[in-house]
Design goal:
Elements (H helix, E strand, L loop, with lengths): L9 H14 L1 H22 L17 E3 L3 E3 L2 E3 L2 E3 L4 H6 E3 L6 H4 L4 E3 L3 H29 L1
Antiparallel strand pairs: 1-4, 2-3, 5-6
Helix pairs in contact: 1-5, 2-5
Length: 145
């Protein structure tokens, strides 16, 4: 079972967000959209060039998309994903098929994943949290002077 962790100052932060939501809900969504664009830019830079993509539609770098920011159950959500059909194969790895040239396989049964998405999001996690706090403070100052 998951354990709940209580952060000091979180209640104060939540109160600020609630107050901002009442006064300027569109500003919060705009800032999350801007943050999402920055994360996509960083993910594109971290995405490896795919040598297994035979079609343009399967290339990884150009397939990063962000859905519009929505508020669900009191939480703002910004979903970022890669629409390429080979994203999971490159990220998590894959089993080598039976067909194909045996010389190319070089005795491998499994190709390890790159885990570029997980690594980049682990790296960006603290930055995103700090950016959110800074964003709320800026919005609070902007709205309430």
């Amino acid at each position: 079972m998951a354990e709940l962790t209580e952060f000091k100052g979180l209640d104060k932060f939540a109160d600020k967000v609630k107050l901002l939501e009442k006064k300027a809900p569109g500003l919060i969504i705009d800032r999350y959209d801007k943050l999402g664009r920055r994360v996509i830019k960083d993910l594109k830079a971290a995405t490896p060039a795919s040598n297994i993509a035979k079609k343009t539609s399967e290339r990884l770098k150009g397939k990063w998309t962000a859905e519009p920011t929505v508020k669900e159950q009191g939480v703002y959500i910004k979903k970022i994903r890669n629409k390429s059909p080979i994203f999971g194969v490159v990220e998590r790895g894959h089993k080598v098929g039976r067909r194909g040239n045996q010389k190319d396989k070089k005795g491998k049964d499994f190709v390890e994943g790159k885990f570029f998405y997980k690594k980049k999001m682990d790296e960006l996690g603290p930055e995103i949290i700090a950016e959110q706090e800074k964003m709320i403070d800026e919005l609070f100052d902007e709205v309430f002077g």
